[in-house]
Design brief:
The chain is built from 13 helices and 15 strands. By secondary structure, it is of the alpha/beta class. The strands form four sheets. It has a five-stranded mixed barrel with strand order 3-4-5-7-6. The chain has a five-stranded parallel beta sheet with strand order 9-8-10-11-12, sandwiched between helices.
Length: 458
């Protein structure tokens, strides 16, 4: 039995007999059984010359792809709307007014594409990877690629119990409570690593992205690459072993765990508790670079640094040699400028000292001291003269006082001083007896006499 396109139901290529039974005559020269080729017109044929039904098509009179796609489209258009449930593994609502979702069966490894616009897109923008949902929509065929999808018009959220996202969220809360995600446990990255440990899939694009971009930025770095499964059941155990292997290598300065993008299920291995605890126990700084910007795993939370992509990890794990060269050149220029400025300042200071009058005309240093001495001598001379004048005036006043009070001045006025023979001044006549010798001192000269009488007065 042959199909509508002339192939047998067994899936083997058609034989000459089967082609003949389908209405093809080999003798016409349009079939070459040795080469397996059929000659058809080069231009399009009118639609009325094409078979009306699939059963009427033959190898020499087939439908063009566009006609078969149109037939598919017409058939799909007659399919009824339906409600479908599953888990979101990928969602893109970046373009305003449109939403593209990959919906996975809750229990089987089967997925389908769902798209929608307008109100459906606005409602879908509230959902994220891992959400369980119920969607109402109508089957839709995109004729350009003959791809089947569900055109959604309603999306509802299902309770999270039992979903992968719910289980991972519960694990996240438990590990966070144990302190595995604390910031004070995270290690700083080495500024200039010499050897980078890379954990990735064999022949993966992530490996090429990391190594190429690191070598462009810092060519002296060497790599120690450990290939592992990055999805599936083998993933967690192999990643744990790779982390332990690189962490035990004393030459490895930093470890990068890298994987390209994928669905939520594809990345689930990097949210395994064994992987998270291995990363926490790692004493070498570890960078998580899993998926794209919108993807997340528990490894991202425990890692010392989370990079959005493998390329981003390469940019953040090593400095840019050109930027470092510019920094060094800038530092050298600033150092030279500071040394030159310091030397110029010292030269100006020395020139200032050398041009001072104290060095060009040293005697000028003595002029203020000489003036001080001259002024002091002048003040000293004036002061001594004043002291002498005051002393002379005092002496003169004392001399005048002495002169005025001296006995001689009294004698000069015509008085006389009478003394007894023993030299005592006699001021009372009762002290003189008749016949006593007395001495009378005058202004000029002394008279010696004998008292002939003495009369005392009351």
């Amino acid at each position: 039995m042959t199909t509508a396109m002339g192939y047998s139901s067994t899936g083997r290529p058609p034989t000459a007999a089967s082609l003949a039974s389908a209405g093809f005559e080999p003798g016409q020269g349009t079939f070459a059984p040795d080469q397996g080729t059929i000659n058809l017109p080069n231009g399009p044929r009118p639609i009325d010359q094409l078979p009306a039904r699939a059963a009427e098509t033959t190898a020499q009179n087939p439908w063009p792809v566009s006609v078969l796609s149109q037939k598919f489209y017409g058939a799909v258009e007659r399919w009824p709307s339906a409600w479908v449930t599953g888990q979101i593994t990928q969602i893109n609502t970046r373009r305003t007014g449109s939403a593209y979702i990959t919906l996975r069966d809750d229990f089987e490894d089967i997925a389908m594409e769902v798209n929608g616009f307008g109100r459906f897109a606005a409602a879908a923008s509230q959902f994220v990877q891992g959400d369980r949902v119920v969607i109402h929509g109508k089957p839709n065929l995109w004729m350009k690629r003959t791809s089947l999808s569900l055109r959604g018009d309603t999306i509802l959220k299902v309770g999270a119990g039992g979903s992968l996202k719910a289980m991972i969220d519960e694990l996240r809360k438990r590990l966070k409570g144990e302190g595995l995600f604390d910031a004070d446990h995270k290690l700083p990255l080495p500024e200039f690593p010499k050897t980078i440990g890379l954990i990735c899939a064999p022949q993966a694009r992530a490996e090429g992205d990391v190594i190429t971009n690191v070598n462009l930025r810092w060519p002296s770095v060497t790599f120690k690459v450990v290939h592992v499964h990055v999805q599936g059941e083998q993933c967690p155990a192999e990643v744990v072993q790779a982390i332990a292997q690189l962490d035990a290598d004393p030459n490895v300065d930093v470890i990068i765990v890298a994987r390209g993008g994928g669905s939520f299920e594809d990345l689930i291995g990097f949210s395994d508790e064994r992987v998270v605890r291995a990363a926490y126990a790692c004493t070498t700084p570890l960078i998580s670079s899993i998926g794209h910007e919108d993807d997340w795993t528990l490894l991202d939370l425990v890692a010392d640094l989370r990079a959005s992509t493998p390329t981003d990890a390469a940019k953040r794990v090593v400095p840019d040699v050109r930027e470092q060269s510019q920094l060094i050149e800038g530092a050298i220029d600033r150092m030279r400028l500071q040394v030159r400025s310091r030397a110029e300042n010292e030269i100006r200071l020395i020139e200032g000292y050398a041009n001072r009058p104290s060095l060009t005309q040293p005697h000028t240093m003595l002029e203020p001291h000489q003036r001080l001495i001259d002024d002091s001598l002048q003040r000293l001379d004036i002061g001594l003269r004043r002291i002498v004048d005051d002393a002379q005036l005092t002496v003169e006043r004392a001399h005048a006082s002495l002169t005025a009070l001296s006995p001689q001045s009294t004698l000069n006025r015509g008085y006389a001083v009478v003394q007894s023979a023993d030299g005592h001044v006699l001021d009372d006549a009762s002290r003189v007896s008749t016949g006593d010798d007395i001495t009378v001192t005058l202004k000029k000269g002394v008279i010696t006499a004998t008292a002939t009488s003495a009369t005392a007065t009351a």
